[in-house]
Amino acid sequence: SILHSLWWAVITLTTVGYGDVYPVTVGGRLFTFGILLVGIGVIALPSGLFASALSRAREISLDHPEASPTEINAVIADELDPEIRQAVVERDRAQT
Known about the structure:
By secondary structure, the chain is an all-alpha fold. The chain has helices spanning 2-14, 26-63, 69-80, 82-95. It starts with a helix and ends with a helix.
């Protein structure tokens, strides 16, 4: 059935346990499904954002080897939010 297929897909993608213990009631499966999705969101979403930022920083540093880490941070921050970029620039001015 479609529900069994959905359950199988979620459990397989989240690689929960060895399959020896699992919920058998509909309520248990719905609860587990919700918790698994929250777990994916807590781990996968920040990991993806972090990896994307590192990738962008690496790309900028390869394109402009003379750029300082502060300048790279300012470029990345400017792509995300002008207010963040301004805060980075002000912080760097205060440190020098």
